[in-house]
Structure formats: C-alpha cells, structure tokens
Amino acid sequence: MESLMRTQNAEGGTRNEESGLVTSRLPRRGFLAAAGLAWLTPLGTRLARAAEKDHGPAKSVIVLWMGGGPSQLETFDPKPGTDIAAGTRAIDTAARGVQLAAGLEQLADQMGHVGLVRSLVSLEGDHERGTYLLKTGYRPDPTVVHPSIGAIVCHDFPDAGVDIPRHVSILPGQWPARGGMLGAEYDAFKVHDPAKKVPDVTPTVPADRFDTRLKDLDVVEGAFAKGRGQAGATGHRDTMDRARRLMSSEQLRAFDVSRESASIRKEYGETPFGRGCLAARRLLEVGARCVEVTLDGWDSHANNHQIHSRLVGVLDPAFAALLRDLKTRDMLRHTVVLCVGEFGRTPIVNALGGRDHWPHTFSAAIAGGRIRGGVVVGESDPAGGKQPKEPVPVANLHATIFKALGIDWEKTLKTPIRRTIRRSEGTPIKELLS
Amino acid sequence: MWARNLLFAGIVIAGVGVLRTSLFPLDTKARQVTFDPGPTANDEFQAVVQRVDAAFRTGWADEGLTPAPLAPDLIVARRLSLALTGSVPSLEEIRQFEAQPPEHRVDGWATHLLHDRRFADYFADRLSRAYLGTEDGPLIVYRKRRFLSWLSSEIAKNTPYGQIVREMIAGRGLNTDTPAVNFIAATYDDVKKAPDPEKLAVRVSRAFLGLRIDCAQCHDHFLEPEWKQTHFQALAAYFGQTRQVVTHVSDAGGEYHYEDRVQGGTHTIEPSVPFLPELLPSGGTRREQLAGWLTDERNIHFARATVNRVWAMMFNRPLRKRVEAQTLSEPAPPALDILAADFAAHNHDLHRLILLIASTEVFRLDSTGPEVVTADHEQSWAAFPLTRLRPEQVIGTVLQAATVRTINQNSHVIVRLSRYFGEKNFVTRYGDAGDDEFDHSDETIPQRLLMMNGDLVDKQARDELLNASAQIAILAPDDRTAVEAAYLAVLTRRPTDPERDHFTAKLAGTTGKERQGRLADLFWVLFNSTELSWNH
Prior knowledge:
The complex is a heterodimer.
Chain A: H1 2-5, E1 6-8, E2 14-16, E3 21-24, H2 28-34, H3 41-54, E4 60-67, E5 90-92, E6 99-101, H4 105-109, E7 114-121, H5 127-136, H6 149-156, E8 167-170, E9 189-191, H7 207-225, H8 236-247, H9 262-268, H10 272-285, E10 290-296, H11 304-328, E11 335-341, E12 344-345, E13 357-358, E14 362-368, E15 376-377, E16 392-393, H12 394-404, E17 412-414, E18 420-422
Parallel strand pairs in A: 4-10, 4-11, 7-15, 7-16, 8-9, 8-10
Antiparallel strand pairs in A: 1-2, 2-3, 5-6, 7-14, 11-14, 12-13, 17-18
Helix pairs in contact in A: 2-3, 10-11
Chain B: H1 2-23, H2 43-63, H3 73-85, H4 91-98, H5 105-114, H6 117-132, H7 144-157, H8 161-170, E1 173-174, H9 182-185, E2 188-189, E3 194-195, H10 197-209, H11 229-236, E4 242-245, E5 248-251, E6 256-259, E7 266-269, H12 286-295, H13 300-315, H14 335-345, H15 350-359, H16 361-364, H17 375-379, E8 387-388, H18 391-401, H19 413-430, H20 445-453, H21 455-461, H22 468-475, H23 479-491, H24 497-507, H25 512-527, H26 530-533, E9 534-535
Antiparallel strand pairs in B: 1-5, 2-3, 4-5, 6-7, 8-9
C-alpha cells in the first residue's frame, strides 16, 4: 500500500501522497555540479528540459458539474457527530486526516490525487447566478458575458487537427458552459447520454440522397451570391464544409462508450453520468480540451439525505473510476478534474428534511495536473456559521486551474466595448499547486 | 355503413379543399388580410419620409456611391415580417399580397402587421431583453411572463412609448396586478432583500438612453472621462428609496448610499441627472422624477436611443454604430435626428416610427444589384445590409414555411403550442443571442449541424401529410408550380430560371411517394441555404 502512496516526481523528488508534499528534491543540475561533472551541463539542460516537458502544465479540463448545488455536509465536508450533520456519517480516506461523507468510498481511495477546498464563498444564492459565477469565475454583469473555463482553455490552446468540438457539455443542464464574449464558437457542444447517438451528426437520409441534397444546395447558393460581393463573407460555405468534415470524422467514435470493455463501463457505473465521465476521458484522448459532465438533481429542499444518498451513489464510482482511468493511461498529470456545483446547502435541516441554498461556505474537489492531492484548504464552521476559516473566493478556484494549465490568469481579454477583463480576477490557491 | 363512408369521404374532400385554397388565391373573408396603407397615405407622413430619403441621398452623392436598386416587393414584405413577427410571410399571405395592386401593397402589409398580435408579442419579447435581460430571475418576487404580456398589450394598443417607460420606472404595486413593476423586480437582490439601484441605473441608461456608463459604477470612466462615478451613482440614487416586500414594489424615504469598491467605505449621494437638469419635474417620488425627465419630449437622447434601437430591430443593424455606446455623441446619419424629432413630436408613437422606417428608401433598397454591392454600400446604407437572422427568426421561418397557412392567433391551439415549443427547443439548442442581441457572430458548426441533421428542422421538411412539402407535392397542378410554391413558402421569392429548370427537372415524371420525397429534398435544401438564415 505504501508504494501506491508514493510516486516518483518528474524532477527526481518523491511526493508523499498522504501529505501532498514533496519530501525530497535534488535537482539534476545541482547534483551534476556537486559531483564535479559540470561539463555535463548541456546534457543536464536536455534532461531538465525533458523533465519540464514531462511535468508540463495540464492540457485539458474535465468539469464534473453538480447541478442544483450539492450539500457539502453529505459530500466533501462532513461534520460527523455535530448537530448540522443530521446523522450523516464520515469515512476515512487514503489521505490521512481527510474524511469524506459516507457513500464516497471509492473516491476515498483516490484522495491521494484529490485536493479539497472547504471554504468557497459566494454571494450568489440563485441557481442561475451561482452557476454563472462558478462556471466563469465572475458574478453576472449586465455589461459583459464572461467566458467559461472551457471557452478560455479552447481559446488559449488552439488546435487545428481536431475535427470534433473541443469544448463539450455532456448531459447539459439549463445553463451549459458558454463562450460568452469570446463568441458562440466557444460554446460547449451539447450531447446527452453517451448511450444515445451524438445529436445532429448523422444525416436523416441515406448518404447518396444527402450528397444530392448538398449538390442541389449549390444551385441555390449560386443564385444568392449573384451580385453580392459580400455574400462570401457570410462564412456559410466554410461552416458547411467543417460540419461535413465533423460528420465523417473518425474522432466521433470518442462519444461511443460502447467501444469500451464491459468492465471499464461497469467501473464508471451504468448511469448516464458514469457514461458521461467515460466519454469525457475518450474525448480528451482525441483532442478535446474541456468536457463538462453534469450530474443534476442536488437541489434538495426536501428529503435531503435520500436525494444525496442516491446521487452520491452515482458520483462516487464515476469520479473514482475517472481518476483511476486517467492515472492508468498517464493522462491525469495533463488533466485537471474539477467537481463542484453552484453553491452548498444550509447546515440546518428544514422542516421537510431538506437543506436550502447556502453560498456562504461550500466545497469543491479538484484533482490532476499540478494539483496536490490529499490537501484540504479552508475549514467550515462546525456550528453551521456563515464564516469559514481561510475563505476562498470562487475566482481563486479559476485562477488555480488556469495556473495548473499554464495559462496566465492575469492576462486580459478585450470586451466588445474595448474594456479589458482578466481571465480570472482571483489568486491561485498556492496550497493546492505543486 | 354507407353513411360513415360518405362522412369520411366528405371530410377528406373538405380537407383537400381547405388546403387547396391555402395554396392558391383564396376568398375566405375571415382569413383575408386588409391592405390599408393607414397613416402612410398622409402627405405629412410622406414629407418626413422624403426628408430622410433626401438626407441619405446627399450622403451617397458626397461619397460617390450609386445606391442599389429597389428590392422586389416580396423581399421587402419578408423583411417586414421577419422584423415585426419573427418569421417569413406564409404562402397564404403571399398569395394575398400578390393579388393587391402594387402601388401601396408594401405600406398595406406593414400596417397590417402592426395590427397583428404576433407583432406586439414579438416586439415585446425583443424589447424586454434590454429592459430585463434574459435571465429567468428570482422566483415569486419577479414575474417575467406577466411583464411580457403587459408590454405586448401596451404595444398592441400603441400606448405612447414614453408612458410605457414611465410605468416601468415609476410604477408601484403588486408584480401581478401592476406588471410594469417587474422592471424593478427583475433586479431584486436576494441578499439585500431589495431592488438593486445600481442595476437599475445600468438598465435605464442602456435601454432608454443607449448609453453604457456601467464602468462608472465603481470608478470614473477610463475610456470616456466625461462620465464620473458620481454621475452613475446619482442616477442610481433615483432608485435609492425603492422598496420591495415580497411581490409589492413601493417607495419609502431615506438616503441612498453606495459602496466605494476602490477606496472602501460608503458614500451618500443625492439623486441628479447627468444632463438637461432643467427637464426634471419638480414633484413626485424620485422614480417619478427620473421617469418624467427621461421621457420629456425635449429629452432628445431618449428619442434618439429609441429610434436607433427600433431601426436596429428592423434592419438587424443600428443606425449608429452601436445600439448602446459609451457616449451620447457617437456620430449618426442625419436620419437619426429627423426620426427622433418626429418621434418626440408625435408623443413617442411607436407604430408611426416603425412605419416611417419601413417607408424609407433605404429599407426598400435591394441587398444586391447589377453592380456588385460593396461594404461601402452597406456602411452608408446605399444597399440593404446583409445580416444573420436571430435564432428565433430562423426557426420561425422554418416552422412557418413548413405550413402553407399562417400560424397566428387564429391558428388552432395545438398548432400554436407546437410552434411555441418548436421555437423554444430550437433556440435552446441553437443558442440564444442573449441580452446583446445585435452582436453579430458567425454561425457555429453545431448550429449548422442542427440545421442539416437536427430533428426540429428535418421534421418540417419531411414528406408528411401535414407539411407544406407533401401538400405541394400532392396538390400543385404541375412541376413548375410546385417548385415555385416551395420557393415562395421558404424564401419568399420565385426561383430564378436556372433554379426552376434544375428543380423542375428533378420532379419530372415523379409521382406519389417519390415526388413527395423530391419536394422534401427541395425544402431541406432551401432550409439550409444562406438565404434562409440571413436578412437581405
């Protein structure tokens, strides 16, 4: 077990997954100099560069979106034995001293890879506004629509070789991630349960009839273009060609999780969300940059415990299998996985056995890339108060992810009215970054 | 038994008869459109149109531009239907339009549409984006549907626009009984348990003055130094005494304080307007004073902003560079002031303004011509600008084109519901333009895929008996007429000769299912053309 808890870090140090700290670090160049082998510097430089490449920033993001706002107390921040727990038990995890709510047993085994923020604070107690804040890092603002994490990642990491959409929302809720001021081209491509066909990529008529339709379309296009110098500027032809390329792309198979073995599918869970997580991994393999997978239904104003028990049963195998799978395929170090909803839920259970909206203190789980596992940031009030220790503004979560991706979060984007806004107004959470 | 067979045969014959009258000129009085030119026939009205036309012509002469020729009447009718109802005219309407004498049929069509409830509903929906945003907003304290329904009724009655705005800004009462107060309620802050004066200042300045001074909310404006933070906050102070208890909006006393987000602390500020203080009424609540000042007929900025916004709704492009700018002095063609003065002088008559714009030469110019139309032509309004249709206009067109009869308030409730949900689903999948509805972005691949392969569009083209494609295939007397009917239904024009020859040849010799399939192919092609998705 201990060998599983220790991994060799790229620069030769050893990272203790229990504490998340690198316990020893001996840079190769320093070692060479100390050994009187400075003449080997060019070799050292090459080795260092290789190491940098090996441990470079993450390339992609998976957002596990908990629509409706999950209760922190029944997920990532249990308070066993307190009044506010209302009977919810906690379990130990692979990270010493870090507990999760009962039901997250599989994720508990992966906590060596997962960091937790238990003191997220927000002023947005409305679903739509809270979703906007968590997805963009900004509060809704009538002057501009901010881009979501995925939109910024796709914008900053262009990739011409990918036919399929690089920003995807699986099981999109009411407010899937959007491109905002970056443009609709950065909106997430919405797909439903991967057990079903990808929407809109298959012609509704046989191939030869479809080709005939396209040829006939040229006749109508020709008539419209006549005398219109600017008609080419509509971009219609270009979009049509790219859409057709997508329709015939082999990369579309990434959506088809039935190509995975039955055992892998079982690990993720035979649920739409489990399949969504599996599809997310497959999409990243063919070049997608950000995949959002939604698990909706956490808005437990009544029967909180039953609702959470059911949803945690869906989340746990999928989240844990995703981390295991990414790790096995050596993709976890290049992928940041974030699990969060629009807010938390009240510490006090209401008369209907429900918990209401609680933006004052809630939790997020984050893993992969340069994120240190087993770390917990902040602490909520065990008595259910509104003030957490080390409050973390939502924007800091975004700055952390961007830093893990090697994106300068302070770099600005220009709004349509020439105003400049930062990719994130936050500050990276240094405890979470290695 | 024979009686039932007879009844069945009778029903079938009656159904076919109804369809046939829809396809070809009909004489059912109840469904006939009245082509009354209305105020456009007045000399005084035409004098204003001529002044606008002359101003544009002077501009073109100065720039050495030859304007595009006038567009065919049917294309202008399409523009009007898209702008005022969000979809193209039905085949039924086109047949009636073509039966009219050409002199005044476009004027008559515009006047007719203003009296059609589809116009009031559609305009209310679009205007409300500027008033309320597109968020669903807080439950119970905010009733968006009530607001939309009220606004639509006011637009249908042609209540003076200034009065509509005054009710929105200064209204008091329950959000169900006095729906105008939902303008205030839309900004309800769940934490402060009150409407948000800063958000209201943003909405008022943007929606009614076309002015973005939001940046001055926190600091003096960096890009437009004339706007100070105190301008913004003094405007917000007009809403500083506004209260809302659950669903009831009212006014109380007290001072307005704002938070200094840069230096910290809070400041108290008295309400004041950023310009034309002499127009402020002396009495009334703070909100009544602001509403009175804003909608005073001498406040030309209110009239200009309204003209610019309505122009943008008609052309899909504003007369100024933007609908909302960071300054009040952004350059504009002289037409803006001519129309703004007329709008103010006629008690902010929205219907008149729309008719004036629809009657101008620039609205009726073609977007193409014997000489290639250049970007300069479009820039100077010497040709009708080519712009992408909004998502609801695209699906509105597809849904209307798929049925030969007009879908309006007289349609069966199932037809209307089907249209409502069809549009809603499509817009959700296609992506709504949001609040900033004049921000023209390129079509995306998922949007194109939705048009090519999506169920919503495919269902309308499919050779099913209720669809126009199948009905035309069965009922059109010959191939040529069938192709023409399809073009009219979808693109509101007849096919060019090469198009007619191409598609007529495809139908030649076909019957039954094969013929219906070919017509379905033609509908799919037309649905996926650039021409359908663009205003031209």
